[in-house]
Amino acid sequence: MSEQIEAAALVEAVAAFLQSIEGELSGRNAFHAKVAGNALGIVARELAQAPRVAEQAALSAYLGHDAGLDALRAELCGRLRAGQLTPETPGLLLALSEAVMAKVAVDNPRYATLARMRDA
Amino acid sequence: MPGLPMNDPPPERLAAVLARAVGDVVAVTRVAALSGGAASATYAVDAVRNGTPWSLILQCAAAGDVADGALPKADQAALQRLAGRHGIPVAEVVAVLHPDDGMGQGFIMARVAGEALAPKWLKGDGFAAARAALTGQCAQVLARLHAIPIAEVAGLALPGGRTGEARMRMFAHYRSFGVNSPVFDLAFAWLAERCGDAEPDAIVHGDFRSGNFIIDEHGLAAVLDWELAHLGEGAEDLGWLCANAWRFGIWQKPVGGFGERDALYDAYAAAGGARVDRARAHMWEVWGTLRWGLACLQLGHDHVSGRVRSVERAAIGRRVSEVELDLLHLIRFGDI
Hints:
Number of domains of chain A: 2
Structural class of chain B: alpha+beta
Strand order of the largest sheet of chain B: 1-2-3-5-4
Largest interface: A-B, 39 and 32 residues
Number of helices of chain A: 6
Helix content of chain B: 40-55%
Low-confidence stretches of chain B: 1-6
Order of helices and strands of chain B: HEEEHEEHHHHEEEEHHHHH
Oligomer: heterodimer
Structural class of chain A: mainly alpha
Number of strands of chain A: 0
Number of strands of chain B: 9
Shape of chain A: elongated
Shape of chain B: globular
Order of helices and strands of chain A: HHHHHH
Largest sheet of chain B: 5 strands, antiparallel
Distance between the termini of chain A: 39 Å
Strand content of chain B: 15-25%
Strand content of chain A: under 5%
């Protein structure tokens, strides 16, 4: 560890703070504090799992060349809009599934569809 | 509170509106904001009519007027009344605001007793009988709604167009965010191959889902939120009701977290609705799921653009990936 307090440690500290004041909040503020705590959970998982790297790997493997994630996404979208790729194009649905599963594992790991897709 | 008009409606003005509508002496004792959606603001209104307590709901356009092309509040009220006349359970409309009332567009309706929070009635022990009855009741409501001749709403500014136009509008909405989601583009391509370009032939509720019902111990007490009603194809309502987002985690029950598709379709046909084509219903489920995905993008955009800064909206923006996964499941396996 090159830093005493890395980003993950800060996120954890803020999440613990939010939890500590939960009992003092009510109504809308209590609800938003809960949402904020969940949002920090997403940040913590994103730091740990680097989903953009996994998504980039899935998309570049499918397209057969390397590029930044935003460029890969834009290329896929452009080719779908132009009809050069379609839902029937071999391998496309599987590549997108792999990319999106990495995202959902960060955004909402308990989402039921994630387990269903892994078992599929 | 974001999303609400600058000022809450003054009680004395609401009392005057109510007195005008019913010809009685009315006092308003409390006006409490319930929710601030993107388009509408809803208030609980406690009134006293001839000495008797009277529980009401006020719904008005969040910005005073509805957006261009949206259903005017007076027309929404008229449609709700029409639905009631056709035997659909709705809150009775009591009064419609006039421009002279100085409170923008809106209307006042009865407050229907029951549970509006879907997770409560979907999971609560006291609602088992209601849940058992609900699939049939939803089917009957939709069959009745879709059977109303559209000539009956000729005087109302209901939006609507051909299916293909609706898809193009939805695509333009997606592109307006400047976001590149390969899964959303895939879903649009999938829909383009299947949705066709039919003329609208029915009144579509447009937001018929578990979160828009009032449920009592017998089941469906009222269908709320008619603000997204439009002319289209009735099966759109069936698909939206089955979108995974409205199952509140009870994904094993595809109809709103409480029912089975076959039971819904059979009851819909038994109540006079068209026999549901499974492939068509599936198309509308994909459509509805994508539509929810665009709503997530819109809510995230509200935060990013500064229109409504909110941790809740920012967090909902991250639900886009759930929708993408649901779309992939629907398209790969024909079901979710």
